Amino acid sequence: MSDHIYKKIELTGSSCDGMQQAIENAVNKAGETVKNMRWFEVVETRGHIEDGKVAHWQVTIKIGFTIE
């Protein structure tokens, strides 16, 4: 196994459907331009409330990827 060097970026994904979908939205969008993604970590979770109910999720994640 070779040594790896990683870089991290921070993104905020959003979704009306829940936290997992917000994470997947961020990862999928990053995947359009970022190569060699290896992991993510959730660093913050927020939501928007309308009429006493959760209406929207925002999840901030850090994505780690290897540098070629």
Q: What would your notes on this structure say?
A:
The chain is α+β, with helices and mostly antiparallel strands. The chain has one helix and three strands, in the order E-H-E-E. Strands 1-3-2 form a three-stranded antiparallel sheet. The longest helix is centred in the middle third of the chain and has 12 residues, at 19-30.
Order of helices and strands: EHEE
Helix content: 10-25%
- Neighbour order of strands in the largest sheet: 1-3-2
Rounded Rg? 14 Å
Based on secondary structure, the structural category is alpha+beta
Question: Helical segment tally?
Answer: 1
- Strand fraction equals over 45%
The tally of strands reads: 3
The span between the termini is: 15 Å
Core attributes:
68 residues; alpha+beta; 3-stranded antiparallel sheet; 3 strands; 56% strand
Topology of this structure?
Blueprint: E1 6-15, H1 19-30, E2 37-50, E3 53-66
Antiparallel strand pairs: 1-3, 2-3
What's the gist of this structure?
18% of the residues lie in helices and 56% in strands. It has one helix at 19-30, and strands at residues 6-15, 37-50, 53-66.
